[in-house]
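Continuing the batch. This is chain 6 of the set; chains 1 through 5 are on the previous pages. Same settings as before, nothing changed between runs. Recording input and output for traceability.
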Amino acid sequence: MQNQDYGEKRATAPEIMALSAASRDELKDQLTALYRETAGIDTSAFSRRAEISRAAFSPRHNCRMLTIVEDLKNPGDIIQSAAEALDVHPQSCWNLKQTAYGEGDCPGAIAFAFPGQGSQYLFMGRDLARCFPEMGQSLAAADRHFNGPQKLADYVYPVLSGAENEKPVLEEKLRSTDVAQPAIGAVSAGMVSILKKFSIVPDAACGHSYGELSALYAGGRFDESTFFSLSAARGKYMAAAGGDGDKGGMLAVKAPLEAIHALIKKSGLDLILANQNSPDQGVLSGPTDAIEKMAALCRETKIRAIILPVAAAFHSRLVAAAAVPFEKKIHQAAFSSGTVPCAVPVYSNTTALPYPDTSEDAKKVLATHLTHPVNFVSEIQNMYENGIRTFVETGPRTVLTGLIKTILKNQPAHILAVDAASGRHSGILDLAKTLCALAALGYPVALEKWKPPFE
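Output for chain 6:
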């Protein structure tokens, strides 16, 4: 693992200009003064001015605006655009490409949502790993429990030789269940630590499938060592699920959940609805021949469906062999009570409710996790009913961001992703946008910790 640079260089971290005031008119006055003050200013002086603005910003002020400035040589255009946006957007909360605005009270409790297998990709979190020691420390801690043929970080951040078809081979290695799960966990945990650096901590947590382990860690139910040990074990056992026999498969189906249930019943196939991901999208799990027959049936009935590239029929009886040793591992692990000061409610895929407070009861719920369906729809709905108004997807990609938006359609909620661009542009810019959006909403972001260039 190359701790120094993690491969090719990317864009440097942007500046964040943060303003807050009692009213829009006062905020406009600040923007006008800022525009005049920064006309012709050199880059180092602008950076100092931005740092002063972040220190003076208050989430308790009624009106809050944060602007991301990437081109320090011409900040005036961005500042002017931000001022114009105040007149164009009368809403109390909005996000543009470079500016986030909010007014009024903070909308409510915040939850971290953690992705599962399938969200991994080569070089995920690389910019964060380069700039924040917290990510490197998380990867190193995960490696101590991984016990693979090479370091876990070497699967995530491989050194490219330029050979033909090199990336597909490396992607396949990372996709392997015993690698993907602990790798996603390491990156997710690193993001948790980075958000904590800026004083962003969850009031609740949830995860999708494997991501529930990340949620339990972020929710304070077990420590880092236990988290990475369980992650490595879960990936190992699930990779071996089914032995030499049929390990089964999974089929993603784009249709209302009621229609999917009816389709399974009508077909008579040995399948279950393993993942209730959104009101109009589910994943079936079962024997390989049944999955193939259902895929054909979906084609005949003009229903969108795709067989997923997974190692087994997860969240079904076909992975019972993996559940037995994993349950033993769970009961040997040290769990904290849900009432300890650092713990927050962690919602279960199985029950769609918070994990029980006692460690023994919590272990029983997690022990059934591998073989029971994921009821993500009810889980998110219950979190919303219990006061969660802001969801932050904390991990690679934005799979859960899309699902949560669909589940909470037409309900007032704020749904963000730390890895919004999924590696397509600078991950530091993604982080800056997340922090700006949260600060604009009124969450107490420690903006004074934003000190570019982070190198």
